[in-house]
Amino acid sequence: MTTDQTPAPLRRRGERMRQAVLAATVDLLTSEGLTGTTVAAVARAAGVHETSVYRRWKTRENLLLDALGSHADEALPEPDTGDVRQDLTQLMSAVADYLASPQGAALLHLGASPDAGSVEADRLPYWDARLERGEDIVRRGVERGELAPDTDARLVAETLAGPLFARVLLTGAPLDRGLARRIVDLTLDGARSRDGRAATG
Fold first, then answer.
1. Are 102 and 28 in contact (CB under 8 A)?
2. What's the distance, CA 49 to chain centroid?
């Protein structure tokens, strides 16, 4: 018998079930943190059977990665203003804001946890896809002549993201306002076009 506090699981299937579970996962991460976001708690909040969650995602880590990846996609912009410095600043400011949120911090800690190996196959393509946003911006800057033709777009994207990740995972230093612009300025100074022209913004 069920109670008001423990409603009977609904017969959600397919995409409806997936969206309900992902939304419940993000909500629990916000209110309970990474430790409190168990598969059982997510299933209760989403109104589905715990076995259904395991059947689809196999592990808690896979569920968290799917939920956080979908949430991050909605939170991060894809700026294209015509100015590489402005575009990268907008993107990295959004990344900094996201990493300062419970969801963003959980995403980074998930990747660095001892259980990270269990999501390795999904984790690496996930970060590749997010770094590609920065790479696309850098390539457009090269095409416009703002950056040197031999600029390594992936290295620039990794260089921009690295200090933000380090602050969350290693030092705990605040992601203060203006940090993203300072990181972009520092990085782009080493990727200027050889004729001395720099991006402005």
1. no
2. 28
Distance CA 37, CA 35 (A): 6
Task: Give the pLDDT score at 54.
Answer: 95
pLDDT digits (tens, 9 = 90+) for 135-157: 999 999 999 999 999 999 999 99
Burial bucket for residue 146 (CB in 10 Å: 0-12, 13-18, 19+): buried
Cα(85)–Cα(185) distance, rounded to whole angstroms? Answer: 8
Q: In the Cβ-directed half-sphere of 134, how many Cα atoms lie within 13 Å?
A: 27
- What is the Cα gyration radius of the chain? 20
Calpha distance 22→45 (Å, rounded) = 10
